[in-house]
Design a protein that fits this description.
Elements: E1 2-11, H1 12-22, H2 24-30, H3 33-40, H4 46-63, H5 65-68, E2 79-83, E3 89-93, E4 101-110, E5 114-123
Helix pairs in contact: 1-4, 3-4
Length: 124
């Protein structure tokens, strides 16, 4: 069994500025339609949710880096943060063979200035 972990923290203002300056060009490059719909539903706190998802994608890249090296060309949208009916986040990872991965767990948090994500991967 192998356990790997990835963590990322980002300033919410950086994501807000990117969205306001680049608009759909930035959103459509980084986020899936489901992620955009979810974040936009948060109205006044949408930038915190966008930032948390950005951090989650970075953390996932880090936690899965051992698997991605020279094997896959992964884009931002290949890693999607989804929420279950209770609001708990999880990852939907596309285009990567995860047969040797037993589980992936994610934790997101944000405050007024920062968003942070942690991704833990247990593999066989």
């Amino acid at each position: 069994m192998k356990i790997t972990c990835g963590t990322d923290i980002i300033e919410i203002e950086r994501i807000k500025e990117s969205i306001e300056q680049l608009k759909d060009k930035f959103l459509e490059r980084i986020y899936t339609e489901n992620e955009i719909k979810y974040c936009e539903s948060k109205n006044g706190q949408k930038y915190q949710h966008y930032a948390a998802r950005f951090a989650a994608k970075e953390a996932a890249f880090k936690a899965l880096s051992w698997k991605l090296k020279d094997k896959y060309s992964v884009t931002w949208k290949d890693i999607e943060v989804i929420n279950n009916k209770d609001g708990r986040p999880s990852l939907n990872i596309l285009g990567i063979d995860l047969n040797d991965v037993e589980s992936i767990d994610i934790s997101l948090s944000h405050c007024k200035q920062y968003a942070v994500a942690n991704v833990s991967v247990i593999s066989k």
